[in-house]
Give the backbone structure.
Amino acid sequence: MKVQLYISRHISLKGGRRNRRPPSVWIAVVSIALAVVVLELTLAVVAGFRSEIIRKISGFEPDISVLPAYDYQLGGTESVLEITAGLEDIINESLPGVTVVKEFRFPAVLKTEGEFSAIILRGYGQGHDFGFERDNVVKGQWPDMLSSESSNRIVVSAMTARELGLDVGDKVDAYFFVDGNIKARRPEVAAIYESNFGENDKLTAYAPVAWLQKVAGVDSMTVTSLGIREGIPNDDISEKAGALQQRLVDAARTGVLDKIYVVDNITHTGAVYYSWLDLLDTNVVVIFILMACVAGFTLVASLFILILERVRAIGLLRAMGMSVRQVRDVFVMLAMRLVAAGLLIGNIFGLGIIFAQRYWNFIPLNPEMYYLSSVPVEVSWWQIAILNAAILVVSWAVMVIPAQMVSTVSPSQTMRYD
């Protein structure tokens, strides 16, 4: 193998009277480089989309939700959930180490002089991390939702603010429907956020949980749901939610609980977005196959040309005693030089574009369609390493067939070959 490697490294890829590399060589290198760039960009963009979309889904919805009990007479769930010691014990036993947060969601209508908008005000209790919400603030300052000083202060989306003509510091009329009656409040807009997440921005506003409970006329142990956002691996969410639901059903049957509480999870509430992400994964497979076919075909054609241009060299090597397999290995290694050059150029351009987009976001997106203002990218070095290794292996495999052509070359005829 050392002899074949030595010969392949010293065979010139240049040709013709001007001693330049023929177009076939450049086409092979460019096709490999283009395949690397496209595949690396595809991996980075899909990983970026998945990461950002899941981050936004998790920002608006908990991984697991414990909802009010099911009412068989009404054929649906009750409107609120009363937290009991038995319920908390079962959740902590089923999901040890997680943080359970009280959540209160209250539909309301915000009204200005000429416009109105229906929204859902959300309030979170102790233990909720407001990092996602703070990161989305585009105007004003996020208030301390757990402080009594922030009572009567709300945060609305940029979409709602534009629709109602609101700005930070403005007062707005808020109307709530409680037990068949209408309650009116006049909260102040403390901040405006923008997550570019479609209907969530349109419907969601934030308020202190204690203020919402006071408006609803309930105590601090009455909520609309219990949310669990941290401490559960993504792949285990559905399984853990199902196990918790079964525990709650068993507890109701044995009399530990007097109601059957409903459990939901983010893979169900965000099913539309997860289906969209699965579709992206399908597109990645299609792109991989197409680029592999294009690069493979170009590489095979280039190797055929390299062999045809060096028929006399093949005859000379055979006449010197090299076997067909050895000569074949020489040309496979010669073609691998093209692959290596394509990989080097492709990685430079591919990773360059990825990091440029990561730091400067020069490729914008329509947030109304893609939920993001620019193309997200995320580099996974192990995926990049596997991609490069796969290209080397596939390239070596596809070149075996054209390399067999050297077995048809007769040393006695090569001197007359033109």
